Amino acid sequence: MSRKEQLDLLKKQREEIIHEIESFYLKIFDRVSELNLNERDIAKLSQLILQSKDGAITPMQKEIEKQLITQSNN
Fold this sequence. Notes:
By secondary structure, this protein is mostly helical. The protein contains two helices and no strands.
């Protein structure tokens, strides 16, 4: 397997992982919306969930962007 093929495979895997993470967090938000909590508690919980999601996705996204930046135009 060439280096380009390996990098393409890594990019695809990272994108799939991001998609799975986003699906996971959508399910969590659905669960939160079904809870019988006051608005303040829902807002706090939602903020924590969003921070967690960002923490999970950002490193993967940076690697995808890094790969795009470091590739030559040849």
